[in-house]
Amino acid sequence: MQLPPLGLYIHLPWCERKCPYCDFNSHEAIDIPEMRYVDTLLRDLRGDLSLLQGRTIETLFIGGGTPSLFSTNAIRRLLQGIAALVPLSPTLEATMEANPGSAEADKFAGFRDAGINRLSLGIQSFDDAHLQSLGRIHNSDQARAAIEFARAANFDSFNIDLMHGLPGQTPASAEADLRAALAYKPPHLSWYQLTIEPNTVFHKRPPQLPVEDELADIQQYGETLLADAGCDQYEVSAYCQPGYHCRHNLNYWSFGDYLGIGAGAHGKISFPDGRIQRYAKKRQPGDYLASGPGEFTASSRELDRDEIAGEFMLNALRLNQGFTLDLFSAHTGLDAVALEPQLESLYRRELLVRSGDCVKATDLGRRFLDSVVAEFFP
Predict the structure, then answer these.
(1) Does residue 202 belong to any structural domain of this protein?
(2) Which range marks the domain in which residue 332 is found?
(3) Buried b or exposed e, range 175-206, using 16+ CB within 10 angstroms
(4) pLDDT of amino acid 104
(5) pLDDT, tens digit (0-9, with 9 covering 90-100), for 180-205
(6) 242 shares a domain with 336
(7) Across the chain, how many H-helices and E-strands are there?
(8) Strand pairing partners for 284?
(9) What angle do CA 189, 194, 197 make, to 5 degrees?
(10) Does residue 264 sit within a domain?
């Protein structure tokens, strides 16, 4: 089995205030033990070194929580410590999630100097009423200022995170949000519909969301607007200017490997003998900080051979370009011939289409993607 590219995900779990729609592992905190946490992250990574298997880290992504709450010195110490432990690609993509609050935006230049070369800005909306309904702590002026700060700090590559289908949102206000984002000509835009997840405040007290017809209008018009602006939709909710794809996320969607360090971080690792392992680190920050060597992992399991194809499809069919059968074999260790019965059935139903060696979802298939993926699970 050919080992796929390797990324590194780092989870910083603290935020200033938990948003009512958020189901990520994030915890409100007044006093963040940032240097202690950075040292713990590096001990965690040291214990995972055998999983590299001679590979170089091609991308890293610092998510949360709100990573930009950390000081520039803590981020510099983290990146320097990582570089001392693992080989990093000379073309490393180093992404960090950041909130648009003024305190965080003031640090952008310091993050750039520390080694972060790509920001993902959690804008969500440019409308103050919608930001308030989402529980965001920034306003529209701070959202706009954050984008300017990112450009001034020489972040040539950055992402604007924008949601639609918000409480009380109309197609006209969704269009206004999208036009506001596109006015900045962002290199990358993540534009996706708000969904109500279990174990969130919105799940317990659901807000009034746009009806299905309005959501369909927002999606259809938004995709047209993005295409007219020269944005390439390369994944279900990811759009970019030429050359600005998120390489870290592309590795996820291509069934690549990634180490995960930090409270609640997940990882996926392949082995030359065909085994594929998924694992998760301890979720609670206190438990994670108290862990000693070899104690960071909370759960680990090896994928059954009969579920690997489904796991691959769950990721790869999100990509507009789909996947090649050669890539499937290389990243799963399975013979693509085993897919033929499901593929032929989906071709006949016009849910998938094949061109040469490439397989991708049709427009109809993308509408029913969950059902398409389910065909490949036992």
Answers:
(1) yes
(2) 306-374
(3) bebbebbbebebbbbbbebbeeeeebebeeee
(4) 82
(5) 999 999 999 999 999 999 989 998 99
(6) no
(7) 16, 17
(8) none
(9) 130
(10) no
